[in-house]
């Protein structure tokens, strides 16, 4: 028998310590609790030490040691393969369903518009989107693609498809996986900091998020799939962790894998493996050792390779928006680039404030009770307003690709509709490089449409981010910036054409030359706006040059990114993800936030002067019944163990969950345990009466080295310790005598109070 009394030769009963056998459930955590990083790392060190020592004893043990060391790399391989395959599936399906709103391919309904026309022999380069095999819904119903009736039919079906897709998405989320909504990055950041949210990275969430992400993107809502792809990759990693014991049983080790999975998510969403690793390091990870960096790099590489093998974009390239600008940028162009940075910072600060205000209104009013109605109303408004304008009708990725495009001689886009040049002003053109030219009527029309598209995108994105469907923010933010950048770029181009004599242009922009590249301005604007919203810097620049292949434009991207961050930080310190973490009340200690108040540990610890005395357990004079009464009367996640109530000399700390599991186990498996049985935490228990019930020895679950601070420790140091060591609580002592306890929640409430925010907004333990 695993527990209980074992008879000895002299008739005395020997008690087995519960330490001898592992008890199921001990060392695990309840939902909405914070893990103990120190304990988890200590457990992993002990496990590794044991494997290493055994490996010297036999060949089998040596093979097990090698297998243990290799398991991390194997897990990274599996995460990369699964994430890359899912990303390819999502890209292909979303592209097809987006085109389905406008028409269908007669040669095969599973072909999207682009693939349908590739196989046609009647497609011309100028009209490569038109082919007999692709029919709009109006052509199928009334036989003509032109005219008022055709326009109305296409309009109505576009709106109906959008409503159907969004209705399916919100219904699936509500019915099967409520955690599948939103971006997922705020929650991933919170989980990586040590918080437990059961089911957030489960198989149902993965399945529903994958399906509804395709539906949400295809509906035409102003959202992207890049943020949710991080959530999808982390779900894959969490599920695959269960195949390996060392990751299944250790929450800290699992979070190392999730950090690498976040890198894979960005790698497969953008085709940017290095940017993905830097994104995980800069933006989402809480604990990122060097080993995790290498494994993230490997996993991101595998994910990118898998995506490239699937070739979802059909262009044999990994990058989403490949650009090939012919003209180099000039130093004086840094002025408009910095202006785009200022715009990006202003947009970022405006978006965060308005979106958080709207989401708070949703949480605190009746609006939050009708998520399906809200999604349908936002979809209806988006579809009705988007269809008349071709730049809002197309998907976010298509729009950005169009805006990044550098006009060539054979381009049929309205953005490339320039008038003929005046030979008196310009010299002759040669090759495929086009000199700056006067804007034609098509370009003027496109500019007005882009102005309307900019206003539409700015407003609708505020109401879209946060609704109950999967919704990313990267593509909408980039679209806003790309539109603003393209408008400014065309303005600069026309300035250079009509006023080449201006002193600021004379030195580097000669008449007839290709001086200004509007597509580059769109790229810089997209970077600035995404930086203003997320406050990313290094990872953003790397993602953008990987995304476009524009390696020589790093300096303009860096200038715009830093400017947008400075401007946005001046108007509000939080990025969008930190703001949503605070809105949801997650217990997340932001490493970027400075603690500037002069308070001490005694000002924050509990119990306060008006509170009841601190609930403690004594070392060896409490019974099982008394311990169960104390646990039932309180809701704390753990209890300090002291020598006695009089001395309050600290012995250790025990978790509530471990305590309950051990006592329940002892009642089931240890013979004679009753409510009067003593609970012993000491190494040398006092002598027991011969006829008394057997005691329950719980030293194995006692943390003998809990972290302590003195009552006069400045809170600035306490906060720093909590951040860097990932603590869930610290005990407060005075001359070795226990005074109180500080938890992560206490610190967050105190910081909220000092910042004049509602301290009760910290929802979870």
From TrEMBL:
Family: Belongs to the chloride channel (TC 2.A.49) family.
Record-annotated CBS domain positions: 605-671, 701-759
Cell location: Endosome membrane; Membrane
Organism for this UniProt entry: Denticeps clupeoides (denticle herring)
UniProt protein name: Chloride channel protein
Membrane-spanning intervals of the chain: 70-90, 155-177, 197-217, 229-245, 257-281, 334-356, 368-387, 446-467, 479-499, 519-545
Superkingdom of origin: Eukaryota
Gene (name only): clcn5b
Bilayer topology: Multi-pass membrane protein
Keyword field: CBS domain, Chloride, Endosome, Ion transport, Membrane, Transmembrane, Transmembrane helix, Transport
């Amino acid at each position: 028998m695993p527990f209980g009394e074992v008879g000895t030769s002299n008739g005395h009963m020997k008690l087995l310590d519960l330490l001898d056998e592992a008890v199921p459930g001990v060392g695990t955590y309840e939902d909405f609790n914070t893990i103990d990083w120190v304990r988890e790392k200590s457990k992993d060190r002990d496990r590794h030490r044991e494997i290493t020592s055994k490996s010297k004893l036999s060949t089998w043990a040596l093979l097990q040691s090698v297998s243990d060391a290799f398991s991390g790399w194997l897990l990274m391989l599996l995460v990369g393969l699964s994430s890359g395959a899912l990303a390819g599936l999502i890209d292909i399906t979303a592209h097809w369903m987006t085109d389905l709103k406008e028409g269908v391919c007669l040669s095969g309904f599973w072909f999207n518009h682009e693939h349908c026309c590739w196989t046609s022999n009647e497609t011309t380069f100028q009209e490569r989107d038109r082919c007999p095999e692709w029919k709009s819904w109006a052509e199928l119903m009334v036989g003509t693609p032109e005219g008022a009736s055709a326009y109305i039919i296409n309009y109505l079906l576009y709106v109906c498809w959008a409503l159907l897709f969004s209705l399916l998405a919100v219904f699936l989320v509500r019915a099967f996986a409520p955690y599948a909504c939103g971006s997922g990055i705020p929650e991933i950041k919170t989980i990586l900091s040590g918080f437990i949210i059961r089911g957030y990275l489960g198989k149902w969430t993965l399945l529903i998020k994958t399906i509804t992400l395709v539906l949400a993107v295809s509906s035409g809502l102003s959202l992207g799939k890049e943020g949710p792809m991080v959530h999808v990759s982390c779900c894959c990693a969490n599920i695959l962790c269960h195949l390996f014991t060392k990751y299944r049983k250790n929450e800290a080790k699992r979070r190392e894998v999730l950090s690498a999975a976040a890198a894979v998510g960005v790698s497969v969403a953008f085709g940017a493996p290095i940017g993905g690793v830097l994104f995980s390091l800069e933006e989402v990870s809480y604990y990122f050792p060097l080993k995790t960096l290498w494994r993230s790099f490997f996993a991101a590489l595998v994910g990118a390779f898998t995506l490239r093998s699937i070739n979802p974009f059909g262009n044999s390239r990994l990058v989403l928006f490949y650009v090939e600008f012919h003209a180099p940028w000039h130093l004086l162009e840094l002025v408009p680039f910095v202006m785009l940075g200022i715009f990006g910072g202003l947009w970022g600060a405006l978006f965060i404030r308005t979106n958080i205000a709207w989401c708070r209104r949703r949480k605190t009013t009746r609006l939050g009770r009708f998520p399906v109605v809200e999604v349908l109303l936002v979809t209806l408004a988006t579809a009705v307003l988007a269809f008349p304008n071709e730049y809002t009708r197309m998907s976010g990725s298509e729009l950005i690709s169009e805006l990044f495009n550098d006009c060539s001689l054979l381009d049929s886009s309205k953005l490339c509709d320039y008038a003929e040049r005046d030979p008196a002003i310009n010299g002759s053109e040669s090759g495929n490089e086009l000199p700056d030219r006067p804007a034609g009527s098509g370009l003027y029309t496109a500019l007005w449409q882009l102005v309307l598209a900019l206003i539409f995108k700015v407003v609708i994105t505020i109401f879209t981010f946060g609704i109950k469907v999967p919704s990313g923010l990267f593509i909408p933010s980039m679209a806003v910036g790309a539109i603003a950048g393209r408008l400014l770029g065309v303005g600069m181009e026309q300035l250079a054409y009509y006023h080449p004599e201006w002193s600021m242009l004379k030195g580097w922009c000669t008449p007839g030359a290709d001086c200004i590249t509007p597509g580059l301005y769109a790229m810089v604007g997209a970077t600035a706006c995404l930086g203003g919203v997320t406050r990313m810097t290094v990872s953003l620049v790397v993602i953008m040059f990987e995304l476009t292949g524009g390696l020589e434009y790093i300096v303009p991207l860096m200038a715009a990114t830093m400017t947008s961050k400075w401007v946005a930080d001046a108007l509000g310190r939080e990025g969008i993800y930190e703001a949503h973490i605070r809105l949801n009340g997650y217990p997340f200690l932001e490493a970027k936030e400075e603690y500037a108040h002069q308070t001490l540990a005694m000002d924050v610890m509990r119990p306060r002067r008006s509170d009841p005395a601190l609930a403690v357990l004594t070392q060896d004079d409490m019974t099982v019944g008394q311990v169960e009464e104390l646990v039932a009367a309180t809701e704390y996640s753990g209890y300090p163990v002291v020598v006695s109530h009089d001395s309050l000399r600290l012995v250790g700390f025990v978790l509530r969950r471990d305590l309950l599991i051990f006592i329940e186990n002892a009642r089931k498996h240890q013979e004679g345990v009753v409510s009067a049985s003593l609970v012993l935490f000491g190494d040398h228990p006092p002598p027991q009466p011969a006829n008394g019930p057997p005691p329950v020895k719980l030293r194995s679950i006692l943390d003998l080295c809990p972290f302590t601070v003195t009552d006069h420790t400045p809170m600035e140091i306490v906060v720093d310790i909590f951040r860097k060591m990932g603590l869930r609580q610290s005990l407060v002592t005075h001359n070795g005598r226990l005074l109180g306890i500080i938890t992560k929640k206490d610190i967050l409430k105190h910081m909220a109070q000092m910042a004049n925010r509602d301290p009760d907004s910290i929802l979870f333990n």
